[in-house]
Amino acid sequence: TFGVALSAQAQTPDLSEPPAIDGDVVGDHGSVTIRMGIGLAETSPQYLSSQYFADILEERSEGRITVNIFPNSQLGDDVQMMEMLQTGTLDMSYPSSSPATTYVEELAVFDLPFLLPTRDAAVAVMNSDVAQGMLDAFDGTGIKALAFSENGYRQLSNSARAVESPEDVAGMDVGGLTIRTMENPVHLSIWQTLGANPTPMAFGELFSAMEQGVVDGQENPWSTILTSNFHEVQDYGSETRHVYTPFIMMMSERTWDRMDPEYQELVQDAARQSAAYEIQLSTEYDDWAREQLEERGMQITRLDDEQIAAFQEAVQPVYDEWAPRIGEDLIEQIQGIVEESMND
Ligand code: TK8
């Protein structure tokens, strides 16, 4: 069961319970303890689905495989934890795809703004052979990439002013917003193109940077903004949905290689099942989190199609710069999957 701290209770909608754990009990191949570091809080879909992952492993190994989850970036941020997987000082992590482009460059396709217009399209892309091929491309880096799930649609927040247009980001007379970005060159390009002053920064440092005014704002899905209490230091939100970011569930290759093939198959199955559950939770959380943020005083600007179109037009130079570097063929493949999913 998912005990969430009472104080956090108010931050958790009545979410769907995870699917019942079915599947055979695996053979006895010894005891395995997995240390898993994640970036988000215990109330996040990322944590709740990681707990489900742990429950599947524990139940189907009769307690021989246990997973200890360390949330809130307490073991480090996405970049640091991926390095810890490579050296084997951490067994699992769950970063966004964006900082992982240093290992698999093709992942940067997910950072192209407005590429994935609907969640159905995003899920179709993550489940596609070309995306699964990106997970396979981690082989040999020291990281075993197990499954994609949903970080979600990124929304802009800031402490300076309401934003409903690219001009509001650039602040024609008062200067551009300073925006923290993930450590990813396409995100830097997006906010530079919009006239902001982007600053790459680890997620774990972001709250205090906003509290001290080092940055005006950041961009993350509503559920992350809520569960990380960003509304305490951010007065304005804008429903830009400018990028859909996946999470990638990862294991150290050293941990993976030490496990019996039957345990490896169980870990792979559990990763896929918990990733599917995470996408369901993240979907349920999204609108509810935005309402909670408004109740907690955040002034959220909803953008109409025309205002979104103005942002899409303003960031076109990002495609001009990055399409050749990411690969026109890959982008066309992804756009083909998007169109197919929209026609279903
Ligand atoms: C959490 C991060 C976070 C990401 C970011 O580990 O860095 O802004 O969106 O969710 O992966």
Automatic annotation (TrEMBL):
This protein's UniProt keywords: Signal, Transport
Keyword Signal part of the UniProt annotation: yes
Xref: PANTHER family: C4-DICARBOXYLATE-BINDING PROTEIN DCTB, PTHR33376
One GO CC term, this protein: outer membrane-bounded periplasmic space
Biological processes per GO annotation: transmembrane transport
Family that this chain belongs to: Belongs to the bacterial solute-binding protein 7 family.
Lineage of origin: Bacteria, Pseudomonadati, Pseudomonadota, Gammaproteobacteria, Oceanospirillales
Protein name as annotated: ABC transporter substrate-binding protein
